[in-house]
Specification:
By secondary structure, this protein is α+β, with helices and mostly antiparallel strands. 31% of the residues lie in helices and 22% in strands. The chain has one domain.
Length: 296
Amino acid sequence: MHEKYPKLRRYMTNGLLILREGLVLTFFIRRPHREISTSVLRALELYCHTVGLEKLGWYTHANGDLQPLDTEGWELIHDKLRSENGWPVDLWESVDQLGGYRFEYRGRALGTDSYIHRPDAVCGASFWLPTEYLEEQGPARVKELAVALARELPLSTGYASLAFNTLSDELGIDRILHELSFRYPGLDIPDIGITLRIGTRPKGAYWLNFYGQPMLGELGGMAGLRERLSLPEVSIQELEGDKVLVALGEWPDVEGEMRPYRKLARVLEPYLYQETVRWSGFPPEEMRRWERRFLG
């Protein structure tokens, strides 16, 4: 058991859990949904097979209500993922609490008139795990899952990181994130909505970092990365499909010196994505300071 991670739990006054720590595996894909739907389905099936199909019990209906992921529910999800243009897909562990397992997908009909004014839009998929899974199964098992997902998806960039798992539309959540984010710089603040803006740029430096083209070429390929990231904690692995994995240590870090994260952030600095949509709990200067937390 690895016990270095904080156990973060925040509740509404009615007892609803709205924030917990977690582990997110996110992949950004700059190809239209119609070209990647089969890959996304395979990745979702792989995730469910690994963690257990029962870990996802509910989905968000088009009307915003949660519906059970029974046989009919799974047929609907599969139909949505097979559709020509793709639709938002949100799968949840629980109906009345924020669970540790979750799947989010934003498929986009890139190249159509709908996205003519969204040149940096991409498709994106996030697979969530509770930190208990990491601690019980070990980091090698999580890394194995992340690599297997990355092999299925024609990604531009991707990452696996400890993260704030939240119900982001609940009152007070931005204030809580602002309070905790600088205390635990190793916890990402995920937002699937970033798929409208991120393009092929990396979002930051994380425990596991995946690069496809064109970012891999910008970074100098495998040789360039090895030359610029010569730290004993860093490993670089070539994957099929012109992708690489840059891993910053055996376990993800939360706080402290985090030297490999700072080293990678400096390598990525000319290419890093900068958020253009203000988080309500972060003034613009604070948001930029958090984005550059490993560059100080």
